[in-house]
């Protein structure tokens, strides 16, 4: 009986290294690209800082001139409201400029991280890549990058607080109107921050079912909250710390046959739902690891 010959290409060590480096570079390029896009968005958002400086300077001149005309013979003493407004605004300005400064620094770090350094072999190139990635993890560069948008968001909240303080001293009507708008915006911000945590603790996985196409491998899930931002992650991390160190919450989990294990990021929890969906009699939650 004749057997068909199967032609398998000879896989050399060099081709294996090239294939490995191609996959690794594709992953690293995508990761760095996402970081750079986030930084570019942050820098665009922080760009109006010069306009804010001009506005604050103009307001300061107007207040100074008004005070000089009214009481030229008295020493100028700013009101407590003026002190609070200037403190909020200038603190907001400093945080905004700081986020922009470190955004530029992070782009420099990323450029150096992905610098194409000539090496003698693919193995040496891969070793260099692993050294740089391990250093990035050890020095928590990804956490530093995640903190930059939060810094800018805090600056915005401080600026809005200063606006409300200013309007309160001027007239009640604009204060009420702007307060409603600010309250709505801040409310949405807070809601999108806490909803992922609430969703993760209330998420339920339905029992598995069989079908002709997917056999027994497909499971039905409730959807997961997609509002996964850095600040939402820090809120989830904080709540998980409370759960792990609170005997009362731990006892409530025990009564519902749930136990807490650890998780490093959002994606780990999503994969956990797919790989190990919990049954009705035994529920497993993954919590973030301590930084």
TrEMBL record:
Membrane-spanning parts: 88-106, 139-164, 170-191
Keywords: Membrane, Transmembrane, Transmembrane helix
Annotated ranges, domain DUF6535: 17-46, 47-169
InterPro entries for the chain: DUF6535
Pfam families the UniProt entry points to: DUF6535
Protein name: DUF6535 domain-containing protein
